[in-house]
Amino acid sequence: MNKIIETVPNFSEGRDEAVINQIADCFRNTAEVKLLDVKPDKDHNRTVVTAIGEPEPLKNCLYKAFDVAVAKIDLKKHKGEHPRMGAVDVVPFIPVRNSNMNECIELAKETAKAISYKHNIPIFLYEAAASSPDRQNLANIRKGEYEGWLEKIKDPKWKPDFGPSEMHPTAGASVFGAREYLIAFNINLSTGDIKIADKIARAVRGSSGGYVNVKGMGVELTGRGIVQVSMNLVNYKKTPIFRVFETVRLEAARYGVNVVGSELIGMAPMEALLQCADYYLRIEGFDMKQVIENNL
């Protein structure tokens, strides 16, 4: 049986359609690789690509995607709501079928080493691939973003796992790792007040007393005149989407604000969405075997 691994690289470009298409093309028409989703966001100025495939072909697609990103994305000119430190900001590997976390860790290291050598980019390892406990959390690594990292990288504590101890002038630095499924889930609010979104994000995220499996921040959607609570759910089985949604909704009500919509960035396991259906529909005795696709 073939090994199937997922990768979800995040690129610091969400507005230039030509560049986004060039990046996506790196994952298209490649044997043993399937491009599942391309999700650009103009406010975040970021594109999330989701692809699955066998390790070697997937690695080759990432080599090509880095070639495009390094040539086309300039962090000195980049502005967006989402934190970032690199043209290709983060590249996680997730075991899907006939693969395990150790294999994803090795794939992350092999790919990072080769890309760092080719493009002279400093690369850090996070989550299961992290070289030290303080590098497991992506937010700890990315703190300061591209601009702050111009000095931060000179600190011996932050010596890259691969590559030079100086930022690439236009591509910055990248973070590679191995992890389980993560759900990027955003909730939009009926206000333009970023302070409200920030307060709600603090209430829901684990680092400030909320759910341990949730990371979150407030984001301004300037094009729509509203704000957003932007979140990563790192363990949907322990902290399901519906619980986070209801918490945000209740917190928003404290400020006289409504939820006007939500969005899924990239993809999510079917089980996570069925949890929501079960919760809101109050289906008694629901069983996953009742889902047709699970029986195909």
Automatic annotation (TrEMBL):
InterPro entries: Formiminotransferase_C (IPR013802), Formiminotransferase_C_sf (IPR037070), Formiminotransferase_cat (IPR004227), Formiminotransferase_N (IPR012886), Formiminotransferase_N_sf (IPR037064), FormiminoTrfase_cat_dom_sf (IPR022384), FTCD (IPR051623). Its EC number is 2.1.2.5. Residues 3-180 form the Formiminotransferase N-terminal subdomain domain. GO terms for cellular component: cytoplasm. GO terms for biological process: L-histidine catabolic process to glutamate and formamide; L-histidine catabolic process to glutamate and formate. GO terms for molecular function: folic acid binding; glutamate formimidoyltransferase activity. It comes from the Bacteria. It is an enzyme of class 2 (transferase). Transmembrane segments: none annotated. Pathway: Amino-acid degradation; L-histidine degradation into L-glutamate; L-glutamate from N-formimidoyl-L-glutamate (transferase route): step 1/1. PANTHER family: FORMIMINOTRANSFERASE-CYCLODEAMINASE. This is glutamate formimidoyltransferase.
